[in-house]
Design goal:
The complex is a heterodimer of chains A (117) and B (109).
Chain A lengths: L3 E4 L2 E4 L5 E7 L4 E9 L6 E7 L5 E2 L8 E7 L2 E6 L8 E9 L7 E3 L3 E5 L1
Parallel strand pairs in A: 2-11
Antiparallel strand pairs in A: 1-3, 3-8, 4-5, 4-9, 5-6, 7-8, 9-10, 9-11
Chain B lengths: L2 E3 L3 E5 L4 E8 L6 E6 L6 E6 L3 E5 L2 E6 L4 E6 L8 E8 L5 E3 L3 E6 L1
Parallel strand pairs in B: 2-11
Antiparallel strand pairs in B: 1-3, 3-8, 4-5, 4-9, 6-7, 7-8, 9-10, 9-11
The chains are: A mainly beta (117), B mainly beta (109).
């Protein structure tokens, strides 16, 4: 159980275009989903936390108008990178926290590798 | 501020034992996680400690001392596939995960 999927697994886009990444909890309901970014050989960087039905909370330094997050249901959150630039090329990973029980474990999706040319 | 320290890189030999340490200073404590991350992949859960002591799970064990703000991950009978980064993360008083920078473990034959 506790499977999180991400789509697409990799994407190449041109500078100036927008890219949408989906994160789904497949077999559980997620109260909270997290979006991370990871550059090569660096640790995870939390970008934002989203709760179903409310606005995402962005970390300091993350532009909310550039990284649009929608958490429309208890099983789906999307991250849209708007007007992408080469410096946005990175590994984007989502995670989800279960609605049930008192576990605060985060279940990670497999990640999306974004390359902006 | 909140801070989690772990060594940047460690090297060990196949079949041996290695201990990866993690010290933390956070605003509150609601548990400590260890995750494994292979290059180019997402992290996978290894262990969770909320009470002091040792939690054993197969070849992997995790220890916690809340009074010392200290944890370690012990890997026994190392295999080449254990080459990965190991991430220590603490759940703070707001139930947010604070991540360490990770320890890259290199296993040599």
């Amino acid at each position: 159980g506790a499977v999180v999927s991400q789509h697409p697994s990799w994407v190449i886009c041109k500078s100036g275009t927008s890219v949408k990444i989906e994160c789904r909890s497949l077999d559980f309901q997620a109260t909270t989903m997290f979006w991370y970014r990871q550059f090569p050989k660096q640790s995870l960087m939390l970008m934002a936390t989203s709760n179903e039905g409310s606005k995402a909370t962005y970390e300091q330094g993350v532009e909310k108008d550039k990284f649009l997050i929608n958490h429309a249901s208890l099983t789906l959150s999307t991250l849209t990178v708007t007007s992408a630039h080469p410096e946005d090329s990175s590994f984007y990973i989502c995670s989800a926290r279960s609605l049930a029980g008192d576990s605060y474990e985060q279940y990670f999706g497999p990640g999306t590798r974004l390359t902006v040319t | 501020g909140q801070n989690i320290d772990q060594p940047t890189e460690m090297t060990a030999t196949e079949g041996a034992i290695v201990q990866i340490n993690c010290t933390y200073q956070t605003s509150g404590f609601n548990g400590l996680f260890w995750y494994q991350q292979h290059a180019g992949e997402a992290p996978t859960f290894l262990s969770y400690n909320v009470l002091d002591g040792l939690e054993e799970k197969g070849r992997f064990s995790s220890f916690l001392s809340r009074s010392k703000g200290y944890s370690y991950l012990l890997l026994k009978e190392l295999q080449m596939k254990d080459s990965a980064s190991y991430l220590c993360a603490v759940l703070d008083s707001n139930y947010q995960l604070i991540w360490g920078a990770g320890t890259k473990l290199i296993i040599k034959p």
